[in-house]
Write a structure and sequence with these properties.
Blueprint lengths: L7 E5 L4 H11 L3 E6 L26 H5 L5 E4 L5 H12 L3 E4 L5 H4 L4 H7 L4 E6 L14 H8 L20 H24 L4 E5 H7 L2 H8 L19 E4 L4 E4 L4 H10 L3 H5 L6 H6 L1 H12 L4 H10 L4 E3 L3 H5 L2 H5 L3 E6 L3 E6 L4 E2 L2 E2 L13 H9 L3 H9 L8
Parallel strand pairs: 1-2, 1-4, 2-3, 4-5, 5-6
Antiparallel strand pairs: 7-8, 8-9, 10-11, 12-13
Helix pairs in contact: 1-7, 6-8, 7-8
């Protein structure tokens, strides 16, 4: 039995952060009822760079939608209509958890806010994601991942030290960290409810989640008056801990302890570096980073990346190639971990997926459902959960309150 088998989620999220969170909960076995606008669907259905999916929007969705919406059932409800809102409230009565990431104030205006639903259903857990939080001067403002990364300080420390241009990391850090933190809080709330019998309200802001990933700099900046700046692939608190050029590319080296640094010097046949007072401890290596990197580059340029990987891995010195995404997805270790998966889609055939990044009892988590077609499960869910008859469902379709995939 899956960890969250028997848990039902009314998923009112859209975009990236919220759907990523509910996908992880679906991976753990929850029954996720993804509510979408009839005819249009989730905004991520339109986020696409692949020609394979561009003709499938919005019915099937773009490549972004396909990557963060498996293990869910799509239910279309027009929440702008009173009938649609009534159906949402009825579904909430049968849910353990409601998750939403509308702009602040929207769910309250719809009568679907935490006070509305938790007053009616005390065991309900209500989880909200927002850009900036529920209080403070920006609480009512919308926000996107790139804006959160800018405000959090992440962009100020990303990029090459020689450039003043702000650089966004190539991953949606705010969205995915916010979604992951929401899952953590949700699991804690479910555990608490098992003891108290009462639901709780959860709020996670993307700004807070992103800043939390900068924890290692907090004391240095606030108490030590340190100036953390762009360092390319380097690390302000460790050296060497970055990419260095090889004969045919780059390799990352990360000997994070004095012992590993001495081992690296032994492998390089450079005992003089280990004996050099400038490099005798990590703080000294950090202060003399440029001189150390100059010496290391002289050595690493003599051999190819593959040759260095073979040598360093044999000696168990942390290192890695700088892979492209395609190379990363083909990495034997990632494949061995069960992270590369495929799911059968009713219209697209096989679709690639990255699995959940954890195992339970040694097993990878199953993909029970492919990313849904817009409205694919509307009739099924309304009949199963609310007991609506085919005639009632047909009336709702005719009134444009719902839509189905047929």
């Amino acid at each position: 039995m899956a960890a969250l088998d028997g848990i039902r989620i009314l998923d009112l999220t859209h975009g990236v952060a919220g759907p990523y969170a509910t996908m992880l909960l679906g991976d753990l076995g929850a029954d996720v009822l993804k509510v979408e606008m009839p005819g249009r669907g989730d905004a991520s259905r339109y986020m696409n760079v692949s020609t394979r999916f561009e003709s499938q929007i919005p019915r099937v969705g773009g490549d972004y939608f396909m990557s963060i919406n498996r293990n869910k059932r799509s239910v279309t409800l027009d929440l702008k209509s009173e009938q649609g809102r009534d159906l949402a409230r009825a579904l909430a009565r049968h849910a353990d958890l409601v998750v939403q990431n509308f702009r602040p104030g929207v769910v309250e205006r719809l009568g679907l806010g935490p006070r509305d639903l938790m007053a009616a259903y005390p065991r309900l857990i209500y989880a909200s994601l927002s850009a900036y939080g529920s209080v403070g001067p920006l609480a009512s403002q919308p926000g996107m991942d790139v804006a959160i990364q800018a405000r959090s300080g992440v962009m100020s420390i990303t990029g090459h030290e020689s450039s003043d241009d702000p650089i966004k990391p190539g991953v949606s850090l705010a969205d995915f960290s916010g979604g992951a933190h929401l899952v953590i809080a949700t699991l804690a709330a479910l555990l608490q409810r098992a003891t108290t019998g009462q639901g709780s309200e959860i709020h996670v802001s993307l700004l807070d989640a992103t800043v939390s990933m900068l924890s290692n700099y907090c004391v240095a900046v606030l108490d030590g008056d340190a100036d953390i700046t762009k360092m390319g692939s380097g690390h302000p608190q460790l050296a060497p801990f970055e990419a260095v050029p090889t004969k045919d590319g780059h390799i990352v080296i990360a000997p994070g302890t004095n012992h590993l640094f001495r081992e690296l010097c032994r492998v390089l046949a450079r005992p003089d570096l280990a004996a050099d007072e400038r490099f005798g401890s990590n703080p000294r290596r950090v202060r003399n980073r440029r001189a150390l990197l100059h010496e290391l580059e002289l050595e690493f340029r003599q051999r190819t990346t593959a040759e260095w990987l073979a040598t360093l891995e044999l000696e168990q010195i942390p290192c890695a190639p700088v892979n492209s995404l395609r190379q990363a997805y083909d990495d034997p270790q990632l494949i061995a971990n069960g992270m590369l998966r495929e799911v059968g889609h009713p219209e697209l055939g096989k679709v690639s997926q990255l699995g959940a990044p954890y195992r339970i009892d040694g097993d990878v988590l199953p993909i029970r459902l492919p990313p849904p077609i817009l409205g694919q499960h509307t009739a099924e869910v309304l009949a199963e959960v609310l007991g609506l008859s085919p005639a009632q469902i047909a009336e709702l379709v005719a009134a444009n309150v719902i839509s189905t995939a047929e």
